[in-house]
Amino acid sequence: MDVFMRIAPTVIFFVILLGMGFWIQKKSSDSRTANYSKDYYIGGRSLGGFVLAMTLVATYSSVSSFLSGPGVAWQRGFGWVYLASIQIVAAFIVLGVLGKKMAVIGRKVDAVTVVDVIRSRYNSNVLAIISAIVIIVFFTTSMLGQFIGGATLFSAATGWSYDASLMLFAAVVVLYTTVGGFKAVAITDTACAIIMMVGMGILAVIILGEGGGLSGVMATITEVSATARTTGEGVDMIAPTASGLVSVKSLIGFWFLVGIGTVGLPQTNVRCLSYRDTKAVHSAMIYGTIVVGAMMIGMHLLGVLARGVLFEVEGSTDTVISTLISGHMHPLLAGLTIIGPLAATMSTVSSLLISGSSAIVKDIYIYNKTTKNEAVDQKMVGKISLIVTAVMGIVTIIMAFEPPSIIIWINMFATGGLQIAFFWPLLLGMFWSKANGTGALFSVVGGLAVYCIATAQGISIGGFNNIIASTIIAFILFVIGSKVGKPAEEKVLRTFFPDKF
Amino acid sequence: MEKMSYKEKFIQMNKEAKATWIATAIVFVFWWVSGFGIYAVAPEATILYMPAWFMVACFGTWFLTIGLVVYLTKKVFKDFDLNDDTEIEGGN
User: Fold this and answer.
1) What is the pTM of this model?
2) Is 2.40.10.170 the CATH number for A2-402?
3) B71 touches chain A (CB under 8 A)
C-alpha cells in the first residue's frame, strides 16, 4: 500500500503525458502531410507566450536544479542560492536578443533548426556538420546524465530498483516525444513546469513545518554559521562566499555559464523559431522571468532551509531532497512531490531528444537529399524522423543501465561546449555583418579545442572557469577569421542585414 | 501591430537587442552591488529572519528583472508581423 501510494501519482502523471503525446500526434496529422519536419521539429511555429515561456524554463531547469543544486545549498548556505539566482536572466536575454531575429530570418529562409540558421548565414557545410555533431554528442551525454539522475532519485524515493525506475520514466519520455514531436514536448513541458512548482510548494510546507517555521529554521542556520566563524569548522551559511567555497571568480564564471552564455544553448534558442507572433515572445519574456526566478531561488533556498530539518546526510549531498521526500512525508504526498524532479528531468530530456533528432534528420539527411536534387518525400521524412527519435532515445536508455565512464566524462564539457559552438556564431552572425564562415569555423574549432583540452587537463585558465578564456579566444579567432576569409554574399547580407542597404 | 518594412523590422530588432543588453547590465550591477555591498555594511541584518544581503540580492534582483522586462516589452519592444510580406506587396 505504501509503495502503491508513492507511485500512483507518478503513474497518473505519466498517463497524462502520454495522452498529450498521442493526442497531438493525431491532431497534427494534417499539417504533417504538408511539411513534416516543420510540424514535427518546430510545432509549425504556433506556440503562444505562456507555453513558450514554460517550455523554455522547463527545458532549462534540469534534474540538477532539483537535486544536486539544492543539495549543495544545504551544505554551503545562502551563497549557493546567490549563485543560482544568476539564472534569473536566462529566460529574457535569449528571447530579447535573438528571439525576434531568429523568428524573422527563420521564416524568411524556412529554418526549422538552429543549424539551418547557421547554414544559411555562413553558407558553410563543414560548419553546419560540426554544429550538428556537437549537438548530437553533447545532447546524448546530457540526456544520459538526466536519465541517471532521474532514475537514482525515483529509486531512492520509492524503493524501486534503479533499473525499473529508469525503464518506467525513460520509456515514457521517449515515447511521447517520438510520437508527439516538438508540440508535444512544449505542451508536456508546460505540464512539467506546473508540477515542478507544485512539488516545490509541498517541500516548502514540509520543511517549514518540521523546522519550526522560518524563525526556527533560521535559528539553526545562524548557530551553524556562528560556530563556523568562531571555530573554523563547517561552513558559514550566512555569508555570500560561504567560507570561501563560493569565490568571486567562480561567480564570474557562472555569470557566463548559466547567465549570459545560455543565449548560445541550441536547446533553448531553437525555441525562437517556434512561436507564433511578437505578442507571444513579449509575454514569454515576462512569464519566463517570473517562473525561472521562482524555481531557481525557490529550490535552492529550500535546500538551505532543509538544514533546519536534516542535520546530516549520508553520502553525497545529492540525497538531501530525496531523503526529505522519502523520509519526511506522507507516502501520497511523497508520491506527488517526486513528480517535480522527475518532471524537471523529463522536460529537459524531451527537448534534447527532439533537437538531437532534428540534427540527424533535418541537418544531415534532408540536406544531403536536397543537395543531390533528390525529391524529399514527406511520408518518408515522417518515418525516418520517428525512427531516429526513438532510436536515439532507446540507445541513451540502454547506456544509462550501465553508464560508460567515457560518456559521464564527456558530459562535463556539454554545457560549455554547446555554448562555445553556438554563442558567437549566432550572436555575431545576427549582429555583425562582417562575420563570415571562416571566422565562425575558426572560432568554433579553436574555442572548443581550448575549452575541452584545458578542462580535461584540469587547468583553469586565469583561475576562472575555462568558459571565460575559451569564449574570449573564440571571439578573437572569429574576428581574425572574418578578416582573412571571404565576406558573406550579398544575398545573405540582404536577408540578415537589410538595414545595411 | 505596426506595419514595417523588412528593413525597418531589423532596425527595430537591433534597438530591442541593445535594450535587452542594457537591462542585463543593470541586473548584473545590482546583483553584485546589493549582495556584497549589503553584506559588507550589515552582515548581521535580516529581513524575514533571512540575511538582508540575500533577500535584496536574490529576491530584489528577481523583482527588478521582472520590472525591467515589463518595461522593455511595453515601452521598447514593438509588435510587427514576423513574416516578410513586402515582396508580395512589391509584386502587385
Assistant:
1) 0.94
2) no
3) no
